[in-house]
Amino acid sequence: MRNGFLPPVQEKVLTVFLRDKDKQWFVNELIRKTKEYPNAIHYALVALEKNNYLKSKIINNRRFYSLNYDNSLLMNIEDILVKKGFLKDSTKVEELASPWTKLLNREASLAFQFEVPLVNRDILPKIIHHSIGNFWYNGITYGVYYKKNDLKLLAAAVEKKVRSDKYFVKQNIKGCYVLGKKLLKDSQIDNHQNLAKMNNKNLLIFFTRFRRSYQTFMQYLMYPHLIERYFVEVIKKDLLLILQKQHKETELAEILSRLTHPVYHEIEEQIEMLEVAREIQIHGDTPQTKELIKALHHKYLWQPFFTVNAKPLSFDYYKDAIDVLAKSKIPLQDEIKKIKKEQDKRKVELKKTLKKINTSLHLNNFVEILQSYMYLRTYRKNIISKAHFLHLPLIKEITRRMNVEDSFGLISYQEMADYLAKGKQLPKRIVNKRKEGWAIIAESGFVEVISGKGEVLEVMERFQIGMLPIIPPANRIIRGMPACQGNVIGTIRIVKDKSEFAKIKQGDILVTHMTTPDFVPLLNKVIGIITDEGGVTCHAAIISREYGLPCIVGTGNATKIMQDGDQVELNAYTGVIKIYEHEVKTGENTLIKGKTLYKGKVSGSVVKIESDKDLKKVTLDSIIVSNSITPQFLSALYKVKGCIVDEYSLTSHAYLYTNTLRIPAIGGTKIASKVLKNGDNILLDATSGSVEIKK
């Protein structure tokens, strides 16, 4: 230090310490507080300790830093920082709320997610004259995050484009189909054998053509939902004016629901499955019917490929589903006619509703546009999935040459292009770190892959991604939007993807992030549907109405809060899901069972975390107990001996943090936050998945 001045990063770090003088700080907490790069914080801490401003000690295998009051210059530094306005007379400054918001959870490959911010940056300005420079995707918990202000500006840009260009929406809809066909054409590999014979230069030409079409089509995953939202609001506003003139304002909600309910459903696969099942009913299991199943399988086996890591649907998948239909007592020919008739009926009912209220020509046009965009939801998802499946031979050939074929889902398209153009190899250590965990961060248009669980955690700290308030466990009630009315009680099964379809038994309630067309065969077994995502026009809402299944969508976190086997009441009249609790009796040797998140065995004292304030109660002897774990827990997790969580998921923050920080932990207890009390002395055996309360 010269003349009482420190380098800027050291000043920032000391400011944090002087705002909370008695606290011991872990390095990741300082990264989050200062928003500086990890290396900068490490260097600053080393320098400050070397100059005796800070001291450190190892606690629970981690190094914590605190102020060194033996240094007489510390008071002088504090005065300087106060004069500079950094300390504001040492008043503690609360952390600002995170600028990020989570849109959804969706598993996707690294290649796909790396393209998203590139499309936001490079393609969107050409379409709606607006770009998005910030983006976060966590390949461990599958969270997709944007900055709140970016989304507001995007919505405003979309509305401006729609208002200022009367031809935009119809050209945009037509363009989706044109670009979709082009993407499938550019993804198609006519002769797989030729790929191996191509040199890198020719392979790059083929790959670049695919990637250009891929990025151009991906725009339809970014903003059409905002166009839908805009037209729903416009329709609502115009409809209200019409009904006010007719003194029918009380009918607004009902009529709006009819106008904004999807008319055009994707029914082709459903009908084809019923037709094959009917052939089996008539002719039995013959070579001809087997060929029909093969043809159906070949036509739709690509459906799970929204992520390139998926596996194609198997022949048995379709055979089993068709066998169930063939053995059922449902008159299949009547069912086929019914589905087609309902499709036509929806179109007729929409026209009748518009005619009945004597709508204007432009309102009719708005409704038609909205219906077209709602149908595009399934279309664009199917195009991406089919393109992923079709281009697999291409990316497998490229990654084979890169010696990373077994990890092709962890390589970005840019890294593939760099190899073909420049021979640039991706180091094995980077690929191995990505196997632990990875993320994509875009900041002001600069896009980067984060490799390794620890590195992902540091970036989340630095950018305050996902810092939400802690919500107490309360009464185990989940709320969402009713999509198809009804009330059922049953056992839930959480299904993340098709690999877990076998979980579903007759009479179960399906719980998932969101449904896709490949979920349709399950609907003959389940009695209800619950989803994390979606609105009243999403895929789950559409198919639940077709099958008459009570359905609640848009819960946000049902897959995180509930566990396989939970007994629930699904009330799709009110949008409430009630989870029935099991009675627990405590005694001399009470054992609570759970599932291992990170192995280890520790004893300690319980601290229950039900709000942000409880984090301050954590000591070095604490084992924290909570309904779930959020990024807000990090300051406490650096100190604790162990962690017990009611929820369980290998994609949860609890799994990410306890594995990265190597904290003995269990999840899926369902009841620990209710049974255990503050101060209870417990033995946590995370290796066997149990907690013993010591009396």
Automatic annotation (TrEMBL):
<dbReference type="InterPro" id="IPR036637">
    <property type="entry name" value="Phosphohistidine_dom_sf"/>
</dbReference>
<protein>
    <recommendedName>
        <fullName>PEP-utilising enzyme mobile domain-containing protein</fullName>
    </recommendedName>
</protein>
<keyword id="KW-0547">Nucleotide-binding</keyword>
<dbReference type="InterPro" id="IPR006319">
    <property type="entry name" value="PEP_synth"/>
</dbReference>
<dbReference type="InterPro" id="IPR008279">
    <property type="entry name" value="PEP-util_enz_mobile_dom"/>
</dbReference>
<dbReference type="Pfam" id="PF00391">
    <property type="entry name" value="PEP-utilizers"/>
</dbReference>
<feature type="domain" description="PEP-utilising enzyme mobile">
    <location>
        <begin position="504"/>
        <end position="575"/>
    </location>
</feature>
<dbReference type="GO" id="GO:0008986">
    <property type="term" value="F:pyruvate, water dikinase activity"/>
</dbReference>
<keyword id="KW-0067">ATP-binding</keyword>
<dbReference type="GO" id="GO:0005524">
    <property type="term" value="F:ATP binding"/>
</dbReference>
<comment type="similarity">
    <text>Belongs to the PEP-utilizing enzyme family.</text>
</comment>
<dbReference type="InterPro" id="IPR018274">
    <property type="entry name" value="PEP_util_AS"/>
</dbReference>
<feature type="domain" description="PEP-utilising enzyme mobile">
    <location>
        <begin position="621"/>
        <end position="689"/>
    </location>
</feature>
